Amino acid sequence: MPCTEILNNPRYKRITLHTLSIIFGFSSWMGVNAIFLEVPIIINSAPEGWKLSSYIVLIVQSGNIGVLLYNILQKYWPVKDAYLIYGMLGLGCLGSLLIGFLYDHTIELWGHERSLPLFIFTFMFALVACTSSVMMMPYMGRFLKQYIITYCMGVGIAGFISSILALGQGSGSTTDECVPSNSTESGFEPVQVPPRFSVELFFFIHFFLYLLSATAFILIVKMKKFRSEYAHITIRDGNDYTFKRHEKEGSDTDLQDSSKILYEKLNLISTTEYRYLMTLTGVLSIICNSVLPSIQSFSTLPYGTSTHHYSAIFSLMANPIADIIRLYTPERSVKGITCLVGVLAIPATYIFVIALMSPNPPLQDHFMGAFLSIAAWTIYTGMYSFINVSIITIFRQQGGKSLVYNGTTAQVGSFIGAIIFFILVNFTNIFKNPLTIFYCFHSDENARKTRAL
């Protein structure tokens, strides 16, 4: 069936646009997620050690300079958002290509070796990720409601794909294995088990995914047939749009019906609720995007690198699952979202407490300890994704620049949290590294690894 014939069919056109929206969503946080998934491998050779996660979180949040520049640019020199998104997608492609060659290089700064190339490419991914909250996601707000949800699904599916790749790679699933040695008292020494395929290949696959995402966005912009899937709105530069709630006499029938449906389903909220949800967005961003990621290694590595590995993977898998559930569930009210936040506090608090108790948290030598750590990370990530998409869909219906304000608030909150916890992790003793990670001792049966000291 020719492409034009497919797009002339309303059903196939919607399926195509949903597919492209998902693929476009890949580019949002894919690079940042890829970095975090490779941390279990990189952390063993990086000069920053267990503090690497806090450095990465801080650098990721420094990408919010892009959010600031975007808002200034659109205020004084308005530019079509599509052009800016092209630039961000190009930056993501470039970063994912170069990082495969240079991720493990270090440079001496002020007398210390630092993973500077890794940090530079992380910053490039961060610019794409942070600005996606004020450019890419709001751009999809011009389409009918379901398309912004499938875009968010794409953000999660990209994490799911990265997780599957990391799972197949075995990134950090077993950091050490005890092998016979004459150089230790026990007769054994720990050696690192290599991944099944290289970090380079992992990032090159993500380069291909970035190219795919850029192609999807170009098609979304250039294919005029997709404009019939716009919500009935007036669009201005800076992702500023207003819903048209009343049609003039003699308007196209389909547009009248579409406008009527949108008007009936529009979930308009009061000024108080608007401010409350905006504040909630900032608070959740501080906790979920900065605080907990900064201390992930402290809440998982004491149970073994397998726990760190699987908590990162299953967390990213939870994202698209939560978005799919959101797509097929009724819209949440402000009160409903508040109740979900209360439930979210349970796994978030558990993660924070066991990180504080590192390097000797409860159930450290028991399977249940690792299981609870992985489960807490998975549930917290899935619930946060569900809540976040629910808030986004409400703000989308308020029109104006609500989605841009929502994205900006989220990124400002994330930045504040990252600064605070970078200082707490690196310049205080609140979160403690172990003296050693693993050692081997002799057993009549075999050589075993012990827990962190």
Automatic annotation (TrEMBL):
This is Riboflavin transporter. Belongs to the riboflavin transporter family. The keyword Calcium does not apply. It catalyses: riboflavin(in) = riboflavin(out). The chain crosses the membrane at residues 20-43, 55-73, 85-103, 115-136, 148-167, 201-221, 337-358, 370-391, 403-425. The keyword Hydrolase does not apply. InterPro entries: MFS_trans_sf, Riboflavin_transptr. SUPFAM superfamilies: MFS general substrate transporter. It holds the Pfam family SLC52_ribofla_tr. Keywords: Cell membrane, Membrane, Transmembrane, Transmembrane helix, Transport. It is a multi-pass membrane protein. One of its GO terms (molecular function) is riboflavin transmembrane transporter activity. It is found in: Cell membrane. The lineage of its organism: Eukaryota, Metazoa, Ecdysozoa, Arthropoda, Hexapoda. GO terms for cellular component: plasma membrane. Plasma membrane transporter mediating the uptake by cells of the water soluble vitamin B2/riboflavin that plays a key role in biochemical oxidation-reduction reactions of the carbohydrate, lipid, and amino acid metabolism.
